[in-house]
Design goal:
This protein is mostly helical. The N and C termini lie far apart (105 Å).
Length: 449
């Protein structure tokens, strides 16, 4: 195709394919143009216009470029909207034959099975087994956190020790609760398919864990499989089906779990001691029973011993003790010198109040040095805040002074406006009087003339 004026002929775009709609660097507003193989002269261009490209009907004559015959090859007919609606009404897309569009199909039965597996409901026994597996995994994570490669003398490690101990105690209580729930499950609940197998599996895991904890040498093999190189101690919770009636469970265990079990048993030491004392008939006074767990108390004592083992801390304590001794000696001398003085009721009340205040401040003594250091570090900030406050106050004074000046200027402007109005009235009266005089003089002049 060629045009009579140029080498390009626009082609109106009617349909846009959806798969090319979002491609970058594509101009979808302007019409598409196509280039002819070579340039045509005027005669060939006129001859091409005589060929009907729509109906493929060649023309017998070569029309003039400016004549009406040049438009014979253009079809101006159009399909009415009502005919198009009646023709395509009720038509649909046949999805069974996608054609050459490159659409991919899938196995419906396979994906339906996956969807059903995702939406399957979890039975109570499966949930109980999952909770036990998660508890074991949490024990491993806590044990890894305790044995992480960090400095044991660092403050963060000392602060995290009681937290790990409390976590071990809570986790041990949770494991006992799960074991109690497993023991109290009725036989009807375990008679379902897979329930007995899951219970036996959990019993085997527990027995294997206890035997590994009590054995001096770690297990190297279990059921013909080498587990010495494995790094987890939890059941996978999934079964691999090799045959129609055969189910194989994989159990992962490491010797590090023995240390974890010993730590868990240590967290239950206070409860076991209380039970033993109750069996022996020994009763402890309530005031002598520690309020905090034994593991937390041991961790706190360990932190205090580490604090005392530092020479710098000992020097600071020595200086503080010397200062306290000097103050006590001065107070003793003062009390001996003024032993004959009579203490009135107000002074005794003040001393009692100060004594109660000292008892309240005694637990806060470790925090007071940090608070003082914080206040000293914030001294510059407080100084800047004081400067900003002074600047704000000065600004407020300047604003008040400016407001007074503005009010004075407004009063002056009002007085000036009043005086201008009065002057305007006087000037108008003078102009009227002058006009009357001029008229009178003009009348007299006319009389004389």
């Amino acid at each position: 195709m060629s045009s009579s004026q140029s080498q390009f002929q626009p082609y109106a775009r009617q349909h846009h394919d959806d798969k090319f709609r979002n491609l970058p660097d594509i101009d979808r507003e302007s019409p598409d143009t196509y280039e002819t193989p070579d340039s045509l002269d005027a005669h060939e261009s006129h001859a091409a216009l005589g060929y009907d490209t729509v109906a493929d009907t060649p023309a017998n004559t070569t029309p003039d470029a400016h004549s009406a015959a040049a438009e014979e090859g253009i079809i101006h007919s159009r399909l009415p909207l009502a005919d198009a609606k009646s023709r395509f009404h009720g038509a649909g897309v046949d999805a069974s034959n996608p054609g050459p569009s490159g659409l991919r199909t899938y196995d419906k039965s396979k994906y339906d099975a996956l969807l059903r597996a995702r939406t399957a409901t979890e039975t109570p026994l499966q949930r109980l087994a999952r909770l036990k597996a998660e508890a074991l995994e949490l024990e491993e994570q806590l044990q890894a956190g305790v044995h992480s490669p960090s400095s044991p003398d660092s403050p963060s490690a000392a602060a995290a020790a009681p937290k790990y101990a409390d976590a071990f105690a809570q986790l041990s209580a949770l494991t006992k609760s799960l074991d109690h729930i497993t023991a109290t499950v009725p036989a009807s609940a375990t008679s379902a398919e897979g329930g007995v197998t899951a219970t036996r599996l959990l019993d085997h895991i527990k027995a294997f864990r206890d035997s590994a904890a009590s054995s001096p040498a770690p297990y190297r093999q279990f059921s013909g499989t080498d587990y010495s190189t494995l790094s987890t101690a939890t059941p996978t919770g999934a079964a691999t089906t090799h045959a129609a009636d055969t189910i194989t469970y994989e159990v992962y265990y490491t010797p590090d779990s023995a240390t974890l079990i010993r730590s868990t048993k240590l967290s239950d030491l206070d409860t076991r001691l209380a039970t033993l004392e109750k069996l022996l008939g020994h009763h402890v006074e309530p005031d002598l029973v520690p309020s905090e767990p034994l593991v937390g108390m041991l961790a706190r004592i360990d932190r205090q011993l580490q604090y005392l083992a530092n020479p710098r801390n000992l020097d600071a304590l020595t200086r503080q003790l010397r200062s306290v001794n000097d103050q006590l000696a001065a107070a003793a001398r003062h009390s001996q010198g003024s032993a004959m003085d009579v203490i009135d009721g107000d002074l005794a009340a003040k001393l009692t109040h100060l004594y109660a205040l000292v008892n309240k401040l005694d637990p806060l003594l470790p925090v007071i040095p940090r608070v003082l250091e914080r206040l000293q570090s914030l001294q510059s900030l407080h100084a800047e805040a004081a400067q900003i406050t002074g600047a704000v106050r000065k600004t407020v004074v300047d604003v008040a002074r400016t407001e007074r000046t503005v009010r004075d200027v407004a009063d002056s402007v009002r007085q000036l406006e009043a005086s201008v109005r009065e002057n305007a009235e006087v000037t108008a009266k003078n102009v009227e009087a002058l006009e009357r005089r001029i008229k009178e003089v003009a009348a007299r002049v006319e009389k004389f003339v």
